Each structure stands twice: as C-alpha cells, then as structure tokens.
Amino acid sequence: MEQIPTLFLVTFTTLLAMINPLESIPVFLKLLEGKDEKEHRQVARRSCFYALLMMLFFMLFGTLVLKIFGVPLSMVRIVGGIILVRIGFEMFLPSPSEGMFPSPGGNGGQNEDYSFVPLAIPIMFGPGALATVLGMSSMVRNPIANLGHMTAIVLAIVATMFVIYLSLVYARVILGKIGAKGVDAATRLVGFFVSAMGMGLVFHGLVEVLQLYGMIRSR
User: Fold this and answer.
1) What is the mean pLDDT of residues 26-47?
2) Cβ distance 204 to 216 under 8 Å?
3) What is the C-alpha separation between 12 and 23, in angstroms, rounded?
C-alpha cells in the first residue's frame, strides 16, 4: 500500500502529466478565438468541472463496474499502463493533429460550447486520465478501511483540475511567455515521464498476476 503523501503526489503528477496543460493551451485558445476574457473563464470553469465529476465518478465506481464484469484489478493496471506508455510515446514523438478538433468558425458559430467536447472529453478526461484514475484507485484494496488513501486520490484530482483551470485562464500569458517551441519541448519531456509511469503500472500489474497464480511469492 502506498503511503498517503506518496499516493497523493504520484496521482497528482501522473494526472497533470497525462492531461498536460501546455498541450491543451493552444487548442483552448484556438477554440475560443474571438471570445472575450469572461467567456474564456466560463468555458475553463465548466470544462474543468465536467472533467472533475467524471474522474470522481470513475474513481468511486469504476472498480465496482470492473468487479461486476469480473475484470481483476491487476489487469486494470496492466492495460492502463499500456495506454499510458502508448500516449507517452505519442507525446514524445508528436504527429500533426490538424483536424482533430472543430474549428471556431465551424458548425454552431459563436454560440458553440466546447466545454464538454472536446475540452472535458477527450482533452482533460481521455483514455490516459481514465487509466490513471482506475489504476491509482485500484491500489487501495479496501476503500472503507483506507479512507485516508481515497481522500489523497480525491485531493490529487481536485488539485490537478485547479492547476488545469489556472493554466486555461492564463493561457494567453503562458503561451506568450514560452512560445510554441517551448510547448513542444515540454510536451516531449512530459511524454517521456508518462511512458515511465505507464511502465510502472504495467510492472506492478504483472507482479500481482504472477503472485495470483503462485509463480512468485508475495511478501
């Protein structure tokens, strides 16, 4: 079992790296091109709130759903780790993403609301964030008895979304300071660590599988 401060730190850093606000900033500014500062804050607040609710839902009930379908938690860690490794490599070796997101001048015009799609889903709460939330919550074997550990994960999720919210609110300032090349360099660096975190989840999952089938002894 992870210690509470360690569990908070690992969950916070993994989620923050997974969402990668520096990569979200250019998309956010492009989607809200021509909007005033008030609209920027409203969309940032709504999108972060939607993503927060989904993370908390899957943290609380995701493991239960997996148990209903008979999926062991060790497999969740392995699959989640593989997803993180794959996304990390994509971040480290980015490919052109033109056309992934709707243009501000597309359908819906000025009244288009991008809070839920694509900002909350899939930018903030995509496969990587889902895998992270499930993987970290699965580390807590008895949520009721280990309420402090579950609280640490909740606080890490809230802290992550607060940082994301601030990065979107001050998106113009941040992008002006570091520039497009800075965003690209940071994204590649974060991608490396995301892959490393994913390999950690895969390793822990494989160890549990080997222990489950008696191939190695559990401590």
Assistant:
1) 89
2) no
3) 17
